[in-house]
Amino acid sequence: QQQVKQSPQSLIVQKGGISIINCAYENTAFDYFPWYQQFPGKGPALLIAIRPDVSEKKEGRFTISFNKSAKQFSLHIMDSQPGDSATYFCAATSRSYGQNFVFGPGTRLSVLP
Amino acid sequence: GAVVSQHPSWVICKSGTSVKIECRSLDFQATTMFWYRQFPKQSLMLMATSNEGSKATYEQGVEKDKFLINHASLTLSTLTVTSAHPEDSSFYICSAQSTSGGYYEQYFGPGTRLTVT
Question: Do A46 and B4 touch (CB under 8 A)?
């Protein structure tokens, strides 16, 4: 029940296209959903995060869409650029669950020039 | 803000020796830090949760006598891999926790690549 599923495992997008990564969870106690971006050989960096009191959050070209009833959330990258090529991890946590984050398995995004 | 550093960024050691990795939160205090291990093309695997001034909590299957964690201050946690073996070779990443509006956030260090020969 603590698992976070993430798809697709890998994604290839043309420059200027939209990249969409989906995550799903089971634990209804989760109340904070961050996305991390990781470049090879580097640590993950917090990209954007959402709380379940809103259905969408946008920061620049990055948007999180959240569907509480379906227990799903997704990351949209608009106007994808080659510099966006990285691995993206969704995560979930809750104030009642404690401090630990549950991470998805990751999505490797390649944006072709 | 919310910068976390790790040192060293990479280390090569011989089998049987010990290696210490430092994790520092540079611009905020972190009561809690986490240590992760990451294998190539895989997700983050939580090894242990480190709380300042108390013993670390290890995840199931992680040998606490092999992976010694010390959280001596609100800005420093260390991971010591004792009697390292080639199978301990991996990418080790720490994170430091902060709170915002009652929610926990984790900020990650750049990682340490350990190679045991």
Answer: no
